[in-house]
Amino acid sequence: MSATRSGLLNLEIDLLRTFVTIAEARSFTRAGERLGRSQSAISLQMRRLEDRLGRRLLSRDPRHVVLTAEGEAILPQARRILRLNDEIVSQLAEEDLAGEVRLGAPEDFATVHLPEILGAFARAHPKVSLAVTCDLTLHLLDRLRDGALDLALIKREPMGPDIGVRVWREPLVWAAADRGVLEPGGVAPLVVAPSPCVYRKRAITALESAGRSWRAAYTSPSLAGQHAALRAGLGITVLPRDMTPADLVVLGAEDGLPPLPDAEIALLRAPTAVPPAAERLADFVLSSLDRGQAMPP
Fold this sequence. Notes:
Elements lengths: L12 H13 L2 H8 L3 H15 L4 E3 L4 E3 L1 H24 L6 E7 L1 H6 L1 H11 L3 E7 L2 H9 L5 E6 L8 E6 L1 E5 L11 E5 L5 H12 L4 E6 L3 H9 L5 E4 L8 E3 L11 E7 L6 H17 L5
Parallel strand pairs: 3-4, 3-5, 8-9
Antiparallel strand pairs: 1-2, 5-12, 6-12, 7-10, 7-11
Helix pairs in contact: 1-2, 1-3, 1-4, 2-3, 4-10, 6-10
């Protein structure tokens, strides 16, 4: 790796792309398939990158590839470098990226976090049309499997790396219009989406594990409908902390409610080959969400 006059080393884009692809695929074999290289070539590139940085970025065992602390720390920056590189190449290309990308996402995440990201992508690639579908996670998984989507952002339980690439983690909270909605020790009235819904499952599992009775006071597939029911004082719900409207009250242990595990959002690609525009959007979403939040290991 060459050094500048100031003594700093220049990182090679190909090496960073290999590192990011391995980090997402958690497999040298799958990374090689995605990049069109052999497993030995992928291993060689990773050794070159680690040698030049003087840091071990990946921990390998016979079954898994895991990021080290140093690997986790530089992954967001590596994605940003690749995004900027790809934007420059795209702008200078004679023919810009074109086609349609079919993206699925949960309604709440799409409403709060995606508009700015998708707007920036559309401005960078004006010949790409975006078709966004908002639905429950299990329905999005069905659409992805059936070939109706190219990419999907899904809510998931904390799980192994083989189920998508984790792009977001956030604490979940109990929310209501006011504390008076919940009677001390009484049956907890829930405002929820219909089953299957990850947050519905989280709420019920947490209450039952704590020995707290509950009832479904209001069920709606619409996020706006759920928020309206909460503001009308019909019950309590589970929401990501960042997606909780400012006019709702966050409840907790002092209200007799159990703690909740963090929310996770993962990005999945269709099982068949996705078009180049979809791959570009996947990279753009990953790097953009990395800018918004440093994910814990």
